[in-house]
Amino acid sequence: MYKLIIRPFLFCFDPEKVHYFTFSMIRFLSKIPGLTSVFKSIYLVDDKRLETEVFGLKFKNPVGLAAGFDKDASLYSELSNFGFGFIEIGTLTPVGQEGNPKKRLFRLKEDSAIINRMGFNNGGVKEAVERLKKNKDVLIGGNIGKNKLTPNENATQDYEICFETLFDYVDYFVVNVSSPNTPNLRALQDKEPLTELLQTLQNKNLAKPKQKPILLKIAPDLTNEQLLDIIDIINQTKIAGIIATNTTLSREGLTSVNKIEMGGLSGKPLTKRSTEIIRFLSEKSNKSFPIIGVGGIHSAQDAIEKLEAGASLIQLYTGFIYEGPALVKAINKEILKRKS
């Protein structure tokens, strides 16, 4: 029903307006007695064989919702009813910011892709914490970044603020230095500043009575040499793992008119590259750290390929928008099929 009726209707309207409309509808429907149970009965695959333990956390299943969808932790509970094993919120910054000027979100329907240049629009980390205080049983990842006006030499302080503020309310952290939509942010992926940033956060982490896993989200546009540097940094700082990958600046092979728009590209054009990076990191590191695979997962087979390439968990974003919540169920069913 989603692809035949709901998606064609939603795709008639501006993508960002549709996003907020969809949130409102999900929130409204979830308040109707009995409908939450209906959503779960349709989409949730409840099977102990899907449970996955990664970096000390037990996930109900290995399929998560990637950061960027529920930036402000405003719908994590309702979204979990569509069968996700975990929800990653953010990217959050210390101070709320509007992000880049609209229009800033574009569908590339012919390519099954999206270009966004949102620019870390969010209400700030403290607002998100107030919502997370109501969390009952959803496993939450906290994706953190820096404010647009914070110069790179002071970026570490922004990440520290988010880390400390969120610490008691998320299960793991993701350091986002790979978004292409905040000026100069990707420069923080260079070996020296990245090592300093991650080591600072890890030192804060180690000072806690109980540590939380810290992951690094990387861009798909890194060279093999840069990826080897990333492996060295992970081994040096002893953070928990990698999320591969964020959106790309590449426009290779696109046919849609909107390919001229600036911003990060996600969706099917990213499928192959993100899987290549997962396999490279897994092989070159001798599987020394877990990888969450994200980028261009539009089918159960796409997900299996990432898991076989070395990912321990996977996340959806654009595939969830194009394929609907049935994709979550299809992936979990396929994983179970291969376990039997």
TrEMBL record:
Domain Dihydroorotate dehydrogenase catalytic stretches: 50-337
GO cellular component: cytoplasm; plasma membrane
Record's subcellular location: Cell membrane; Membrane
EC number: 1.3.5.2
Residues spanning the membrane: none
GO biological processes: 'de novo' pyrimidine nucleobase biosynthetic process; 'de novo' UMP biosynthetic process
Binding site for FMN: A67, G68, F69, D70, K71, T91, N143, N176, K217, T245, G267, G296, Y317, T318
Record-linked Pfam families: DHO_dh
Membrane topology: Peripheral membrane protein
Required cofactor(s): FMN
Catalytic function, reaction form: (S)-dihydroorotate + a quinone = orotate + a quinol
SUPFAM superfamilies per record: FMN-linked oxidoreductases (SSF51395)
Enzymatic class: oxidoreductase
Active site per UniProt: S179 (nucleophile)
Binding-site list for substrate: K71, N116, R117, M118, G119, F120, N176, N181, N246, T247
Entry keywords, A to Z: Cell membrane, Flavoprotein, FMN, Membrane, Oxidoreductase, Pyrimidine biosynthesis
Pathway listed: Pyrimidine metabolism; UMP biosynthesis via de novo pathway; orotate from (S)-dihydroorotate (quinone route): step 1/1
Role: Catalyzes the conversion of dihydroorotate to orotate with quinone as electron acceptor.
Oligomeric form and interacting partners: Monomer.
Protein name: Dihydroorotate dehydrogenase (quinone)
